[in-house]
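Notes continue from the previous slide.

Worked example: a multi-chain complex. Inputs as given:
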Amino acid sequence: MASRRLASLLLNKTLSSVKSTAVTPLSALPCATWSRLHIQPRSGVSEKNFSSSAPKPQKQTVKVAFILRDGSRREVDATVGDNLLDIILEHDVDIDGFGACEGTLACSTCHLIFKQEDYDKLPSKPTDEELDMLDLAFGLEDTSRLGCQVIVTKDLDGMVVTVPQGVADARSGPL
Amino acid sequence: MNIIQQLTQTMQMPQITWCIARAARLSSKTFRKDCHLFHSSKYNQRKIFVSKGISFFSTSSKTCQHVAIVGSGPAGYYTAQKLLKGHPDVVVDIYEKLPVPFGLVRFGVAPDHPEVKNVINTFTNTAQNDRCNFFGNVELGKDLALKDLRDAYTAVVLCYGAAEDRVLGIPGEDLPNVLSARSFVGWYNGLPQDAQLPVNLDCEAAVVLGHGNVALDVARILLTPTSILEKTDISEHALEALRRSSVKRVHIVGRRGPLQAAFTIKELREMTRLPDTRTVIQRADVDGIDKCLKDLPRPRRRLTELIYKSAVSPDETEVKTWKEASREWRLVFHRSPLQVLQDSNGQVKGIELAVNRLEGDSLQNQRAVATGDREVIECGLVLRSIGYRGLPLSDNLPFNSSRGVFENENSRIKNEKGNSEANFKKLQKMYLFQHLV
C-alpha cells in the first residue's frame, strides 16, 4: 500500500508538471548546452577497449601481478607498451572506482603501490602534475604511482603491484 | 506518451519499473559490511541514512530489497554502484530534484575541467543497470516526504548534499554584487535556478573570501581569457558577461596563513600558470615557512613549497609571464572581513578587513585572532566562498543546526527519541572528488 501511495504521489507530480510546463524538452532548458556535455573518449580509445597502443604485428607480453584490496592475487599478461590503467581494464581486474577520469590526470583513483626495485625500473619519473594528484590519494607511499602514467616495459616482467585501500572511513575522523 | 516514458527515452535510462517488493529486511550487519560508500571531506555533510525498513510487495515473486537514494550526485551514484554490486537482488531508486542526474559533476565541476566529468561514463553504466531507476524532477520535502520513503523502502539513503551557504553575518553582506560562490558557480555552469543571478562584472577588482578550491575555481573563471572559456561547456549567459568583464584583479582572502590553506596543489598550480595573469603572494606572509617544510606530511609540504616558491623564487617563465601580464590575482592571508563598504549609490566599493595573527601550537589547527589593525581592499564584487551547511528535513529527525548535520551516533541518524535506531552510513572518503567542490 505504501509504495502504491508513493507511486500515485509521483504520478500526480509528474502529471502536474506535464500540465504546467508542457514538458520542456531537456535541450530547451536554460542550461549549458547539453550536447556539449558529452565527454569524448581519449583519442585512440574506443568505448570498450581501452588499449591505447596501435595494433602491433606481434604483441609482446610480460607477467604483472596485482595484489587486490581483499589480499587476493591476480596475474595478467600485460602488453608491453600499454599503461597499467588500460591493462587493468582490458583484463577486467575488478577494482572499485578505478580510473574514474579515464587516464586524464584529473583524479587519483588508479593509484598503485610498487616495490622499491620495480619503482626504480619504471620507464618515467612522475611529473609534478602526477604528484599533485597522488597527493590526494589515500595510503600514499614513496613508491606510489598513478597506473595511467606507468608504461609497461620488458624489464618489468614478474612485477608485483599492490592496489591500495581506496577509501578511508570518514567515521574514523577527518584525515 | 506519459512523462515516465518520455524521461526514459530522453535520459536513456533503463525502463523504469515500479518494483514493489516484499522485502526481507536488509540486515544492518550485512549492509554495513558490504556497503562501502565514498565521499570526500567536502562531502562531509552528505548524509546517508538507512531507515528501519518496512516491507512492501513485489510484482515478481522473487523477494528483493529496495533502497531509495535521495540525490543523484557522486555520493548517490557511488552508493547505487556499490549496493548493486554487493547485493545481487537489491533494487535502487534514485530521486533527483533536477530533471537531469549527476549533481555536482554537472553543476559544480568547473567548465574548464572537462576531464573530471569523465566519471559520468561510470555513473551512466550504473544508471543502465536494470535494477537502477532514476526519478528526476522529484523533490524531497515538496513532492515527497521522507516518511513516504521510509514507509515504502527497505532503506533510505540521503545524499542530498549541503544545500545552504554559510554566511558571514557582517554589515553590507546583502548588498547587490555580494554573491555566494555557490550561486556564481551555478551561474556559469548553467544551473537553472542561478541563470538569472545578477552578476555585475563592470569593476576592476573582485574579492573572493575563503581559501578553498571553490574560491580558486571562481577566481580562475573570472581571470581566464574568454578565448579559452568559449571552448568549454560554460553557460552562454556567463560567457557573454565574462566577455564584457572589466575585472583585472582578484584578491583571494583567508583568515589564516599559508599552512592552513584548504585548497589543493593542482588548483593552485593552475592559478600560477594562468595566461596573461600574475600571481602575487607577499613575501612577508611566507617568511619562515620554509623552515617547517621537512616536518610536514608530503601533500601539505608540496603545497607549501609551491606557495613559498611562487612568493619568493618563481621560475623564469613565470617571471616573464607575470611581468607582462595585464591581470593579476593576489593570495591574501591573515584577514577577516568586517564589513562590505558601499558608495552613495548603494554599490559595493570595497571591503574592510581585520588583520589577524595566529595562536596555538599545532600548525594546522592554529586560530586566527584579530590584532586590532584594519585595512580596506577596494573592489566592486565580493564572492563568499566559506563553505556550506546541510538542511534538515521536516521529518522531526534530530538535527544539529549549528553544524548543519543530523544528530548521529557513529554515523547512524538518531531517531525521533534521540536513540540511534537507524542504520546510518556516513559516506566514506572518495578522493576523486576532494578537490572539486
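Summary box: Confidence is low (pLDDT under 50) at residues 11-48, 170-175 of chain A. The CA atoms of residues 67 and 73 of chain A lie 5 Å apart.
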